[in-house]
C-alpha cells in the first residue's frame, strides 16, 4: 500500500485537526428544531491563555488596560471586551478566551506583566470548546450537571468549573437563548460530545404530558 503523502509546504496550522472533527457530522445530525430545539457544535482552535497575577498589583492594572476589561474578582464572574472574554478561575487566576487566530494574546499579556510576578501561558491546545444552544439546552445539561442552572441562580455571563456527566468542564452561559459553552480537556472531549448527543436524543420526540 502506498505511503500517505503530506504537502511539504503545509504549515502546522493547515495540518491540525480539532479534537471533535470526527464527530462533526454526528453533532450536526443530532440537532433538534422547534420548541424543544437543541444544537451542539464545536468551536475549535479558540485561543486560551491562563493568566496568573496579584489582583491589586500594578501589573494587574496594566493587564486590564491591555485587555480593555477588568479582571473579575468573584467566582462565576466574567468580563467581555471586544474579542476577549476573561473568566475567573481563582483569586489570582483567570482564563482569557479569544477567537481562533489570536496567537499574540499571551505575548501581549506577558509584555504587560513587564517582569513583575505572574504568568501568561498559552493553553489553547489543552481544551476545546463545545457550544450547546436552544430551548432545551438547560434541560440537557441538568441530566448530568450538579449545578443549579435555573435562571435565578445561573444566567448569562456566569462561568464556573463543574462536571457534566463524569467530565470536568468550565461551563459558561453566553446568553438567554440559552447558549452555553463548555470547555473540556481535549482528551475528554470525545466522551463529553457523545454523552451530550445521547442526552439530546429524547427531544426528537413529543413532550410527555
TrEMBL record:
InterPro entries: SoxG, TrmE/GcvT-like
Origin: domain of life: Bacteria
Gene3D superfamilies: Heterotetrameric sarcosine oxidase, Probable tRNA modification gtpase trme, domain 1
Bilayer-spanning residue ranges: none
Pfam families associated with the record: SoxG
Name used for this protein in its record: Sarcosine oxidase subunit gamma
